[in-house]
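To the wet lab folks,

You asked to see what we're planning to order before we commit. Fair enough. Below is the target structure as tokens, and below that is the sequence we designed to fit it. If anything looks off to you, flag it before the synthesis order goes out.
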């Protein structure tokens, strides 16, 4: 065969192979399951709709089926970042999509327009799947301006909102090129994700004062009559404003040939019920009623959406009118009672609870009945409560339950730790486990050392750390062979090796901490000994009930903020004046006094300095995500949250100082070099003390080594599915996605 013929033969074979391969791939593409949609008479495509008080999906068999929406809310960020930075990658999204679908969820809800990669990742993930993962697109309102201006009808507010609606609709349908803008998503949206959209979710939780002022400022606003959504004759000015914005969304979507169910965000504060037992006027001031908006020529339908948590507002543990249903433990289930009352108002409209849940945090900020508090739960307890709330929602006839939240969010804040997180713009750089809002996720965003160090009383895993990550304390105490120190974005870790096996019944181990000039002497915690300067905190490890971090009386943040020099809500006799160290407390409810409130309610705080003994290892009888310490033979291991040591921001080494509260009752910070640790042992039977001062009765703290670290701008973290994920997976699997005849 000549060279020319051989070349022609090879080209023919190659072309045949290309054609064959292309045919195989084409066949695979066409054999993949396709999304079946309903085409209305007017040519509009639909996959979901509402019917009566039910939510419906069009199935592959060509029929509409009643479904129960099961999902999670998804944030737009990761540790070390704020939402407007959009750091997530396609790999992040697709990994999470798989985990969320494995959970048993059929939808994710996003609050705002994500970067283009989100929509690309979702379409790619769903390609070829028999059961896709859908999404609900939220449209963020100009929330800060609404709260500041207190008037929804101001031209620039409505214009800004409509621009956000335009952005959302065009982004979902892959028809947008959004220029860069700080704090907002941008880029070229080329992928059409509309077929995986389940519904539109317009707006954010409405400030009641703003709603009330809008209604009063515009009493003569005409009834809005739109193309697809209108206000009813009973609609308030604010409800007519909402009707216009929902109509604007619908008209824009219709241009792309689709109709999806529509809702607006609502919450208990602006619900349609009266709450005579709620002490705060603003929590029961005004209603935003979904029944005062109606759809027309919109086959996708319309539903009501509520954020409902079991601890906020205070009515959930105060309002006697909700104490009507008892759970298996004989305690009032005010959450279920509330759900029943709310659903009774919407007999002809579906209602989906689009936010609910509890966090797995050490910190706590609100109380709920039956222990359903905002915080103070380990991951197993979080899962049990989340699952029980889900069941309550399903049992009371709701059309869906979307849990808050998928991932932990380090940038979040909450009211009772906000005054202590200073500077506020560095919250995303460390994990304050006292701020419950950061830890609602089913997916843990663990700080840097948690993947390496298991708190179990054994220091073997410390050997895996690099030499420059561990500091060996250079002091000397009889009975203590060695003390090692390290840290991450959430904790100061301390590993101690003693001369003898540790027995909390016989011996108390304490560690004082010093960061600033001032503080208190330990007193009876270290009898007969004093330091050259006071301590800010004392860590006590002993029997379980006494193991805790205490704060110096003069340094006590809770008393300084809410006592006589602050808000004046703490009575003076509530302090143990003779005790130089106080319990580490966080406020959970402020003092309420008529006529400023409907009824009186006392100031309340909760102890958060307790150190729980157990293990962070999985699958053990004493596994507990809130574990702070454990001992094993002559080794003792602990991790202490940064804020319990007085840090307002460990990433920049700033601690709360002793100065008087500034205008607006604000704390100030000082930048420090590190923290000085003072360990000592005390025998219970004899009172014998072993401490760094040896036989002396006084000790100059400056002679002790200080634990120091470099400020950080980058964070280290690892992802981990919490125990609560497994509990929610079981519950989602038990609750059917579709109702059968």
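Sequence we intend to order:
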């Amino acid at each position: 065969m000549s060279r020319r013929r051989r070349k022609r033969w090879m080209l023919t074979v190659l072309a045949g192979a290309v054609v064959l391969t292309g045919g195989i791939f084409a066949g695979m593409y066409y054999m993949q399951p396709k999304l079946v949609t309903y085409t209305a008479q007017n040519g509009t495509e639909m996959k979901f709709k509402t019917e009566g008080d039910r939510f419906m999906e069009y199935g592959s068999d060509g029929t509409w089926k009643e479904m129960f929406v099961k999902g999670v809310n998804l944030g737009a960020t990761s540790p070390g970042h704020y939402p407007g930075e959009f750091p997530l990658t396609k790999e992040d999204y697709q990994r999470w999509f798989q985990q969320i679908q494995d959970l048993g969820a059929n939808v994710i809800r996003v609050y705002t327009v994500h970067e283009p990669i989100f929509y690309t990742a979702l379409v790619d993930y769903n390609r070829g799947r028999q059961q896709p993962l859908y999404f609900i697109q939220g449209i963020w309102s100009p929330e800060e301006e609404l709260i500041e201006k207190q008037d929804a009808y101001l031209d620039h507010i409505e214009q800004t909102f409509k621009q956000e609606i335009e952005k959302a609709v065009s982004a979902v349908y892959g028809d947008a090129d959004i220029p860069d803008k700080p704090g907002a998503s941008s880029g070229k949206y080329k992928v059409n994700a509309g077929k995986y959209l389940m519904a539109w979710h317009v707006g954010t939780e409405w400030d009641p004062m703003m709603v009330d002022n809008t209604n009063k400022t515009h009493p003569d606003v005409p009834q809005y009559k739109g193309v697809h959504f209108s206000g009813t004759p009973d609609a308030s000015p604010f409800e007519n404003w909402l009707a216009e914005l929902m109509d604007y969304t619908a008209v824009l979507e219709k241009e792309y040939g689709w109709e999806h169910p529509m809702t607006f965000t609502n919450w208990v504060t602006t619900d349609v019920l009266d709450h005579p037992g709620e002490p705060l006027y603003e929590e029961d001031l005004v209603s935003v009623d979904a029944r005062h908006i109606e759809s027309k020529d919109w086959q996708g339908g319309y539903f009501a959406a509520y954020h409902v948590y079991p601890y906020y507002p205070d009515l959930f543990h105060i309002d006697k009118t909700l104490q009507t249903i008892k759970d298996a433990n004989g305690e009032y289930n005010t959450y279920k009672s509330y759900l029943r009352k709310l659903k009774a108002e919407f007999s002809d409209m579906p209602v989906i609870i689009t936010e609910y849940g509890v966090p797995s945090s050490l910190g706590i900020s609100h109380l709920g009945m039956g222990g359903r508090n905002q915080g103070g739960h380990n991951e197993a307890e979080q899962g049990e409560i989340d699952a029980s709330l889900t069941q309550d929602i399903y049992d009371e006839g709701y059309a869906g339950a979307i849990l808050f939240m998928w991932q932990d969010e380090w940038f979040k804040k909450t009211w009772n730790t906000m005054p202590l997180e200073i500077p506020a713009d560095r919250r995303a750089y460390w994990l304050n486990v006292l701020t419950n809002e950061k830890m609602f996720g089913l997916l843990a965003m663990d700080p840097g050392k948690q993947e390496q160090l298991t708190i179990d009383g054994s220091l073997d895993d410390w050997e895996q750390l690099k030499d420059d990550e561990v500091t060996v304390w250079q002091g000397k105490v009889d009975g203590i062979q060695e003390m090692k120190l390290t840290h991450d974005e959430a904790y100061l870790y301390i590993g101690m090796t003693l001369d003898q096996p540790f027995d909390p019944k016989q011996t108390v181990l304490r560690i004082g901490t010093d960061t600033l000039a001032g503080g208190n002497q330990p007193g009876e915690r270290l009898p007969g000994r004093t330091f050259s300067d006071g301590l800010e905190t004392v860590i006590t490890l002993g029997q379980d009930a006494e193991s805790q971090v205490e704060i110096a009386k003069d340094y006590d943040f809770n008393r300084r903020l809410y006592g006589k020099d602050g808000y004046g809500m703490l009575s003076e006799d509530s302090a143990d004046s003779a005790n130089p160290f106080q319990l580490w407390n966080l406020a959970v409810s402020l003092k309420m006094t008529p006529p400023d409130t409907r009824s009186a309610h006392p100031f309340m705080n909760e102890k958060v300095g307790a150190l729980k003994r157990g293990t962070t290892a999985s699958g053990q009888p004493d596994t507990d995500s809130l574990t702070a310490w454990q001992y094993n033979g002559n080794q003792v291991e602990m991790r202490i949250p940064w804020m319990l040591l007085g840090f307002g921001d460990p990433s920049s080494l700033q601690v709360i100082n002793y100065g008087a509260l500034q205008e607006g009752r604000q704390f100030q910070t000082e930048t420090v070099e590190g923290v000085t640790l003072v360990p000592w042992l005390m025998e219970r039977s004899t009172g014998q003390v072993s401490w760094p001062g040896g036989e002396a009765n006084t000790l100059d703290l400056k002679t002790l080594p200080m634990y120091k670290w470099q400020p950080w701008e980058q964070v280290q973290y690892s992802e981990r599915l919490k125990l609560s994920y497994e509990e929610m997976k079981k519950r989602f699997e038990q609750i059917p996605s579709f109702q059968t005849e």
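Structural context that might help your review: The longest strand covers residues 674-683. Residues 16 and 22 are 10 Å apart (CA to CA).

Thanks,
Computational group
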